[in-house]
Amino acid sequence: MPEPQTDVYAAIEEAAKRIYIGALKTIPPDVTAALERARGRETHPNGQEVLDIILRNIGVAGEHDMLVCQDTGTVVYWLEVGEDCPLNLARVTQAIRTGTERATKEHPLRSNSVHTITRRHTGTNTGLHLPVMHYDFVPGDELKMTIVPKGSGSENQSFMRMFTPAQGVKAVKEFVLQCVVDAGANPCPPTIMGVGLGGTSDLVTSLAKKAIFRPIDVPNPDPVIHELEVELFEAANSLGIGPMGLGGDNTVLAVNIENAHTHITQNPVAVNFQCWAARRMSARMRADGAIDVGF
Amino acid sequence: MTDETRLRFPLDDLDALRELRVGQKLRLDGHIIGIRDATQIRIFDEGVAPPLDLTGAALIHTAPGVRKLADGRYEKVCIGTTTSTRMDRFTQGLMRDYGVRAIIGKAGLLPDSIPVLREFGGCYLAITGGAAALETTQIEEIEEVHWEDLMPECLWKFRVRDFGPLVVAMDSHGASIYRDVKEEAQARLDRLAADL
Question: Do A57 and B83 touch (CB under 8 A)?
Answer without folding.
Answer: no
